[in-house]
Structures are given as structure tokens and as C-alpha cells.
Design brief:
mainly alpha, two-stranded antiparallel ribbon, 14 helices
Length: 453
């Protein structure tokens, strides 16, 4: 080394060192820029897939209602997305993600109307991605209350769901300062919550809202007296909607890595995609088999098959990054029985949930969160903490769904019951008989050649 430096003056040596330092700084800046670009591309792509799920919800819900209410349910889907994002812009994000200088563990309170985003422009991608999740929680409710809910009442509930109810739950689990995942990575009952992509935070929230909504608005006129007249008008729409939702779920779950700049990020996303495939396959097949061989009328039920697939997707959403593929299969298997049992119980109690929203999103949302109290080996280094492997997450995974059900349930009753009492929630019998499309929409038919029924 000494021989190499012979004849090199101190000034020349210092100049070389300065250039090397400048190159190093430039390289680090380029690396940071590239990482930021990669994360932004990843989250925008994932957010677009989640946004595309509303196509699936629209097709599924349209297929599950009678043709005379097709435009009405599609209008509600459009309302959820448009109003939902505006409420997210105004106050939802601030409550869900806005961690102030002195945060509390219950609710956020910063970045209302995107205040402060210009100083932290990476927040824009987070706003878009998380906003798509928020709108999903609202859409879950629309299907359960279909065919007998007034638009004005639904609008009021949607604004409060996307502006307050869901954001508070998201703050508890995802803000990094909430009741169930605080700055120390703990919850109020033990370890921090494990809910990678929202079995509890998103789906259980929407599912509980759907259950309360279906109960308070009441069943469709003659629903239980003439059950055969309430079959959905398009099974092809239901199947297409299911495939669209499944496709969008590959943004919902893998996108929840929130980053794609390292090998670790890529490996986690790959595992998540695998688990997001296996669980719904197992769950859907079991539900299809149960309805064909055990559950009356023991026929091949394509709509049930679709809901089984969705139930498996909901069940694995919490644990998709924390469990091995064989565990994902088991989670999907148990999810099938939770879905089918809840669906049968809803009918037994004469709770008219048009799309089985609570059975799919509520019951399987609970199971998805609770499952992580049992599955997921801490020694695998994937963040699992299941009791089957000596983990201690079970208390948090059991208590969190109870908090969500209490919060969403009570607020939903407070909002929806007064609306029902003042006549702003339920459609009148005449409108239900003729169809909301004919009575409230222009043009009066979703299909010009549709026969009246």
C-alpha cells in the first residue's frame, strides 16, 4: 500500500478521499430514491388491486339480489367508494393513522384533510392504500342490507363507518400507537396484535356492521314466508364477482408488506400469496361438499361454493404472513365450518343477510384473528406466536375481536336504530314489491329485456 502511495501528495490523497465520500453519499441517495420508488410502485399496484375488489363486490352483490333491485345495490357500491374516500380524506386517515406528537392509545388526531403531507410525501401512497381498505369495510355492510334499505339512511351510516368506526379500529391495531399494538409492540393484554392484512380490523368490522344492519333494518318483505322467491338473479355474476375479489385479494394481502425493496420483503409477499391461494381452495371445496352431501337440500350449490372461497380468504387474511402453507390449509378447513355453521344459524334466527356477509366476514374474521393464537411458530422467524409452539399471543388474539364487536356493534346500533325509528332506513312495502329500480331509478330497469318477477 505504501508503494502505491509513493509520489502522491496529501492534497491529491485528500481529493481522492473527498471524491470517494461524495460518490458514497451519491450512491446512498440513489439507493434511498430507488427504495422509495420501489415501495411506492408496490403499494400503488397493491392499492389498485384492492380498489378493483369493488368490481367484485358489485358483481357479487348484484348477482345475489333480484333483478328489480340491481341498480339500487350498484348505487350503494358507488356511494361507498366515493363518499368513503372523501370521509377518509377529511377525518378517517387522521383517526386511523394520524399519530400526533403526544399520541393516546384509543384514537388518532393528526393529518386531517392531509395536513402535513407536503412535508412527508410518502404519506400519499399510504393514504391511498389504506383508504381502499376502509372502503372495503363499508362495502361489506351494503350487501347484507340489500333490497330494503333507503339510500339516505345508508349514506349516513357509510359516512360514519368510513369516517369514524373503522378508523378507530385501524388505529388500535395498525397505527403503532394503539390499544392493541402500541409503541412498545405490546397490547393492553399482552403481546402486540397479529392481524397482518385485516381479518379483524377490516373484515370483522364490516361483518359486525352487516349483522347489526341486517337485524335493525329487518328482513325483506315476505322473506321467510316465500323463501323461494328471493334467490339471486345471476349466479354468473356471483362467480365472476368471486374471482374478481380473489384476484384483488392478491393486493389486499401481499400488499400489506407495505414495502418491496429487500429480499425479505419479496419472500414474505411470496409466502402471503401462497397462503392466500391455499386457504380459500380448501375452504371453498369443503363448503361445496357439505352443501352437496350434508346440508339440505343436498344439491350442488355454486353460490355456497363462492362464499366458501371468500370465507377462506377472510380467515387467512390475518395470518397469511405468519403461518406455513399447511397451517393455512388448516385455517381454511376450520373456516369452512365456522362459515357454514354461522350461515345456518343466521337463517335459524331469521336474520336476513342477503350475501351472507356476517358469516363470511364476521365469523371468519373472528376465526382468522383467533387462529393466530394457536398457529405460527415463533422459531420460524415469521412473526408467529401460537400457543401450539409455546407462544403467548392467545390473550390478545381473543380479546381484540371482543373489543371490535363491542365498538362496532354499539356505534352501529346508535346510528341505525334512530334512523329506523324515524323512517329513514327501511324501504316501504310498495317499493319492495315493485323494486327499488322501478320506483327510484332512471332508467327504471337494469336490463331492458328483463321479465318482471
Amino acid at each position: 500500500m505504501t508503494s502505491v502511495l509513493v509520489g502522491v501528495t496529501d492534497a491529491q490523497f485528500n481529493a481522492v478521499v473527498t471524491k470517494m465520500d461524495a460518490a458514497r453519499v451519491q450512491l446512498e441517495a440513489q439507493k434511498a430514491d430507488m427504495n422509495e420508488a420501489l415501495d411506492t410502485i408496490w403499494m400503488l399496484l397493491a392499492g389498485m388491486l384492492v380498489f378493483f375488489m369493488h368490481t367484485g363486490f358489485s358483481l357479487l352483490e348484484a348477482g345475489c339480489v333480484r333483478f328489480k333491485n340491481t341498480q339500487n345495490i350498484l348505487a350503494k357500491n358507488l356511494i361507498v367508494v366515493t363518499l368513503g374516500f372523501l370521509c377518509w380524506y377529511a377525518i378517517g386517515y387522521a383517526i386511523a393513522i394520524g399519530v400526533g406528537s403526544s399520541p393516546n392509545e384509543f384514537i388518532g388526531g393528526a393529518n386531517f384533510f392531509m395536513d402535513g403531507f407536503w412535508g412527508a410525501k410518502e404519506s400519499f401512497r399510504v393514504w391511498f392504500f389504506q383508504g381502499a381498505f376502509c372502503a372495503t369495510a363499508g362495502t361489506i355492510v351494503s350487501g347484507a342490507m340489500a333490497e330494503r334499505t333507503q339510500l339516505k339512511g345508508f349514506i349516513i351510516y357509510t359516512c360514519l363507518m368510513t369516517g369514524v368506526i373503522y378508523p378507530v379500529v385501524a388505529y388500535w391495531g395498525w397505527s403503532g400507537s394503539g390499544l392493541f399494538n402500541n409503541a412498545d409492540g405490546k397490547s393492553l393484554v399482552g403481546p402486540g396484535l397479529l392481524d397482518f392484512a385485516g381479518s379483524g380490523i377490516v373484515h370483522l368490522t364490516g361483518g359486525v356492521g352487516a349483522l347489526v344492519g341486517a337485524a335493525i333494518v329487518g328482513p325483506r318483505k315476505d322473506r321467510w314466508e316465500l323463501p323461494d322467491e328471493f334467490n339471486g338473479h345471476s349466479i354468473p355474476f356471483v362467480v365472476l364477482g368471486t374471482f374478481f375479489l380473489w384476484f384483488g385479494w392478491y393486493g389486499f394481502n401481499p400488499g400489506s408488506t407495505l414495502a418491496m425493496k429487500t429480499v425479505s420483503d419479496a419472500n414474505i409477499a411470496g409466502l402471503v400469496a401462497v397462503n392466500t391461494t391455499l386457504s380459500p381452495c380448501v375452504c371453498g371445496l369443503i363448503v361445496f361438499a357439505l352443501r352437496a352431501t350434508v346440508v339440505q337440500p343436498k344439491c350442488l350449490d355454486v353460490g355456497g361454493f363462492c362464499n366458501g372461497i371468500l370465507a377462506g380468504l377472510v380467515a387467512i387474511t390475518a395470518g397469511c404472513a405468519f403461518v406455513k402453507p399447511w397451517e393455512a390449509c388448516l385455517i381454511g378447513m376450520f373456516g369452512a365450518f365456522f362459515y357454514q355453521g354461522t350461515s345456518m344459524l343466521m337463517r335459524l334466527l331469521k336474520l336476513d343477510d342477503v350475501v351472507d356477509a356476517f358469516a363470511v366476514h364476521g365469523a371468519c374474521g373472528i376465526w382468522g384473528v383467533v387462529a393466530l393464537g394457536f398457529f405460527g411458530n415463533p422459531k420460524d422467524g415469521m412473526g408467529g406466536n401460537g400457543v401450539f409452539y409455546g407462544g403467548d399471543a392467545i390473550a390478545t388474539q381473543l380479546v381484540f375481536p371482543l373489543f371490535v364487536m363491542a365498538w362496532v356493534g354499539v356505534l352501529s346500533v346508535i346510528i341505525l336504530l334512530p334512523l329506523r325509528l324515524v323512517g329513514a332506513l327501511r324501504l316501504g312495502d310498495e317499493i319492495q314489491d315493485e323494486g327499488a329500480d322501478i320506483k327510484e331509478h332512471s332508467p327504471p330497469k337494469a336490463y331492458n329485456d328483463a321479465a318482471k318477477s
